[in-house]
Design brief:
Layout lengths: L5 E3 L2 E3 L3 E3 L8 H10 L3 E7 L14 E5 L5 E6 L8 H14 L4 E6 L5 H12 L5 E5 L13 H4 L2 H14 L4 E4 L8 H9 L4 E4 L3 E3 L2 E3 L4 E3 L9 E4 L4 H12 L9 E4 L5 H9 L4 E4 L1 H6 L3 H16 L27 E5 L9 H9 L4 E5 L2 E6 L9 H5 L6 E5 L35
Parallel strand pairs: 3-4, 3-16, 4-7, 7-8, 8-9, 9-10, 10-15, 15-16
Antiparallel strand pairs: 1-2, 5-6, 6-14, 11-14, 12-13, 17-20, 18-19
Length: about 425
């Protein structure tokens, strides 16, 4: 039987599903409910310095991108770090950890980029009983305008410096939360490792504006007629997060650095994607806010059942196993040929494949045969681009068939080779024979 136990950066939890630092982890009431539902760990909503309280807007803090049937695809927020007293938060963290000793308790932190500020708050967190700390170097709104959050996460030198301070003044594992609002996510990850980080987590939210109210021509959401850019998350950001996780996981300069995957995790399949691409666990926020804490039960059961069916006994059997299949474009096999195939007994004659291919692709799907509506693939024009597969409303009605070595590609007239060819050696590559001037 598969087990879901994880040891992430020295932190134990009964399953890989953690709640991310966000409104769901704002106070003991929420976290107790989360642990009762079965979450393996939480990252407590970001704490700041003692002193004047953080003030959030008393109006719309959230915006959403919805499908026509009102399923949530993207989520936007302008909420700041905790507006609750630091001493109260630390007291609750201590009690919750005592009540749930088998669950992971990580505390998110954000203070000014001053050594004394970090030293002071770490001294207090060290005594809370927490299992680790997460440095919030990713928040893109509000706090970044004050020189914190993403303002730190976009400067590798600052990441290395603050991480080193935290390793000096804290006995706890240090997880560095990275911003996606950067050109190359490997650079901050390298800086975190150089500073001594025990792990990184990513992605934090993406800078975004959700839209404009057509009646008033003001951005939405807004407070008293004025809004601010916010942090974008939810299912729509998952592909961006997966790419960044994989980039760090396969970077030789960050090899072995544990990764906590964040961004659009809504079910066990999403978690599997992150873990197979190198993540040690996953953090969830938006899905919990939309569907409630009990979604973790489907996540845990689904992942456990999958592992049993595949014969996997632990998450180590999955972690990073997809990374060897992630490649730079130049190493893709240009001798590989695929052609679309339409399963006629499943086709509902809607014509979406034909319109998509005819208008925007390679005119490889005919619409008529013997004077009647009939959709079929012209192999002499098909390039196997997969567009028709994606727009077809019937699952598995259109698939791609791989041509075998020795078969003739009707589009080019060439025989398919069983030898690998990449763009650096391909005969049709104009750069192949290029020489330095």
């Amino acid at each position: 039987m598969a087990h879901l136990h994880t040891h992430f950066a020295g932190i134990h939890s009964p399953n890989p599903f953690w709640l991310a630092s966000a409104p769901p982890t704002d106070k003991a009431y929420n976290v107790n409910r989360a642990f009762e539902a079965g979450w393996g760990g939480v990252v407590w909503k970001t704490l700041g310095e003692a002193g004047p309280p953080v003030v959030n807007v008393n109006g719309p803090r959230y915006g959403a991108l919805l499908t026509p049937d009102r399923r949530l695809m993207g989520f936007n927020n302008i909420e700041l770090i905790t507006d609750r007293d630091l001493a109260l938060n630390l007291k609750e963290i201590t009690q919750v950890k005592r009540d749930w000793p088998d669950r992971a308790m990580v505390v998110s932190l954000m203070v000014p980029c001053v050594e004394a500020s970090w030293k002071a708050i770490l001294a207090r967190v060290n005594d809370s009983g927490a299992d680790g700390i997460e440095l919030n170097f990713g928040c893109p709104h509000g706090m970044s305008e004050r020189g914190m959050g993403a303002a730190v996460g976009q400067v590798p030198e600052y990441i290395e410096m603050v991480t080193a301070w935290c390793k000096q003044y804290s006995k706890l594992p240090v997880i560095v939360k990275l911003t996606p609002n950067i050109t190359d996510v490997r650079l901050p990850a390298r800086a975190a490792k150089k500073g001594g980080a025990d792990a990184v987590s990513l992605i934090n939210t993406i800078n975004s504006i959700m839209g404009v109210d057509p009646a008033t021509l003001t951005m939405t959401p807004s407070t008293a007629g004025r809004g601010s850019h916010g942090g974008y998350c939810g299912p729509a950001v998952k592909p961006i997060a997966l790419n960044m996780v994989a980039e760090i996981a396969r970077d030789p300069l960050t090899a072995g650095l544990p990764i906590s995957g964040i961004g659009g995790v809504s079910n066990w399949r999403d978690a599997l994607d992150f873990i197979a691409l190198g993540a040690g666990n996953v953090q969830v926020c938006t899905a919990a806010m939309v569907y409630g804490f009990k979604i973790v039960q489907e996540m845990s059961d689904g992942l456990s059942n999958y592992m049993d069916e595949m014969g996997f006994t632990s998450l180590d059997d999955i972690r990073g196993k997809a990374l060897p299949t992630v490649s730079d474009w130049r190493y893709l096999n240009l001798n590989h040929i695929s052609k679309a195939v339409i399963k006629q007994d499943a086709c509902i004659q809607c014509g979406r494949c034909h319109i998509a291919c005819e208008d925007t692709s390679h005119q490889a799907i005919t619409a008529m045969q013997d004077g009647r509506r009939h959709f079929s693939v012209r192999e002499d024009e098909c390039v196997g681009c997969n567009l028709c597969v994606l727009v077809c409303p019937v699952p598995a009605c259109i698939t791609l068939r791989e041509l075998l070595p020795g078969e003739k590609d009707l589009r080019t007239g060439r025989l398919v080779s069983d030898k690998h060819a990449d763009w650096t050696t391909h005969a049709n590559n104009p750069m192949r024979a290029a020489k330095p001037a």
